[in-house]
Amino acid sequence: QVQLVESGGGMVQTGGSLRLSCAASGSFGAIKAMGWYRQAPGKERELVGIITSSSSTNYADSVKGRFTISGDNAKNTVHLQMNSLKPEDTAVYYCNAEAKVWATWNTYWGQGTQVTVSS
Questions:
Q1: 3-state SS, residue 101
Q2: Is the pLDDT of residue 12 over 90?
Q3: pLDDT of the residue at 78
Q4: In degrees rounded to 5, what are phi and psi of residue 87?
Q5: Using the 8-state DSSP alphabet, how is residue 84 labeled?
Q6: Neighbouring C-alpha atoms within 13 Å toward the C-beta of 87
Q7: Beta strands of the chain (E only): which ranges?
Q8: What is 60-77 written as a DSSP string?
Q9: Which of 39, 47, 66, 87 is 20 to 30 Å from 118 at the Cα level?
Q10: Tell me: the pLDDT tens digits for 72-111?
């Protein structure tokens, strides 16, 4: 199985920055992609950004130009640098990974970390 451990959440004022990190551990053969999703109260979970093992990235339109995702394949880690934060970025942020366990690709989730942006 795969365990994802997130860190770096917290509270910040509008315009501030936070950096989230996630590390994958456990027994797996490979990771195809890692990313971040978020879920605000009363809303569905949505993609924030994703990075593949070949370093291709994709972002939600709402965070383009403000957030940057990066990864380290050797360490099985992913980071999300969040700049120019807005109150609407307030949510629980979840790390996500597509990992191969035995012969099957599966999706794994972290426990989530709270990000709160005050106005």
A1: strand
A2: yes
A3: 98
A4: -55, -35
A5: S
A6: 2
A7: 2-7, 10-13, 18-26, 30-39, 46-52, 57-59, 67-72, 77-82, 91-101, 104-109, 113-118
A8: -GGGTTTEEEEEETTTTE
A9: 47
A10: 989 999 999 999 999 999 999 999 999 999 989 999 999 9
Structure tokens at 26: 């456990």
pLDDT tens digit sequence for 17-42: 999 999 999 999 899 999 999 999 99
Task: Give the number of C-alpha atoms closer than 13 A to the C-alpha of residue 48, restricted to the C-beta side.
Answer: 29
SS3 55: coil
Residue 36: name the closest of 75, 1, 105, 82 by CA.
82
pLDDT value of residue 105 = 95
Contact criterion met (CB below 8 Å) for 95 and 4: yes
Direct distance between the N- and C-terminal alpha carbons of the chain, in angstroms, rounded to an integer: 40
pLDDT of 1 reads 86
Distance between CA atoms of 86 and 72, rounded to whole angstroms? 27
Amino acid found at 103? A
Residue 88: which region, alpha, beta or left (left: phi > 0; alpha: psi -120 to 50)?
A: alpha
